[in-house]
Amino acid sequence: MGQTIAEQILAAHAGRDVVRPGEFVTVRVDLVMTNDLMGPPVFAQLRRLGVSRVFDPARVAVVPDHVVPARDLAAAALMQEVRRFVREQGIPHFWEVGETGIEHTLLPEQGLVAPGDLIVGSDSHTCTYGAFSAYGYGLGATDVAAVLATGETWVRVPETIRVVLRGPTAPCVTGKDVILEVIRRLGVAGGTLKCLEFAGDVGALNVDERMAVANMAVEAGAECGLFPTDEILMAWLAPRLARPYRPMRSDPDAEVEREETLDLAALEPLVAAPFSPGNVHPVSALARRGIRVDQVYLGNCANGTLTDLRQAAAVLRGRRVARGVRMIVVPATPTIQRQAVREGLVETFLAAGAVVATPTCGACAGLHLGVLGEGEVCVSTTNRNFRGRMGHRTAEVYLANAYVAAASAVAGGLADPRAVGVGVAG
Question: Does residue 424 register a pLDDT over 70?
Fold first, then answer.
């Protein structure tokens, strides 16, 4: 019997020919990632373990992205500790302000993620690397410290839920809507301890959109969300990845626990209403309720890509953000930001009355550069809308794709982008 992508990757990293769902195996990791927020607790655990050196500095990445540039004295102290650790350990994969970006977008861009890799990180959205056929998942500080010490960890081989895409996508439907539909069907716990594997017409989604899908696999409780390696992904990797890799695809006779089929042409833009990513509704239904908006946020490790910026700009071009609404645009990395400048996207945002901020996870995590006040309402391209996630406990966050976010900024309330007449950006 064949193996799924997840089983193939775990078997290879466990030194086995075959693994099966439910088994617990010890695996070596290709890369360990931490950031400015979770790094210091990880370093403290490492000291408690009595470990003075990480297992391999070249296989460690430290990404300052949550509270940089430092928002206050406490954040400045965190960064001092991070820089000291990086310097003492000789870790080469570290980026200062001006170079750094949101971790899950930055690492693939830097050529540090390849098909078949096994990556762990101190962030739950490490599953984003599934867009690159890599098995990524998040761990707590103690577990990450143990991996930094040994280069190994243990994992339970997950059952796989296969999601078969049937394309092409309808207008203004993106990868964000694909994963929201998956979460709507499975529920926020329906994929717990499992792997989501996407198959079928995956070519309907570009690599940026696949990142949005894989990123939110964890919002269905899944450990990872894996895409196969196809020509679109290989073309994306070619200028960025300098090492050889094995294209990943499930064996034809691999067994999965369950299969779901999504008709992309029948899908419409979706919105996750407060206070759960699983509270999913068609935007057309919610738009009729007249939901006012105080803030629109375009960014995050799920949707701060060039594709998202292009989609939002397609809506905003020649239009203005409604009076009384503030729109914050956060490109995920400096490379994306520079390309957005070259393409005139930043000029479009500024002309529309939006503000363009430095790459950061800040507002998404309720830390800085866009925290919501009491009773405020936000349409956001981020991945979580838990109570208090982006600021005050009474603030409400509606999760949506970039088209919906931009249309809502223009309308001053939650809006269907098809109602304002926009095309589909590449």
Answer: no
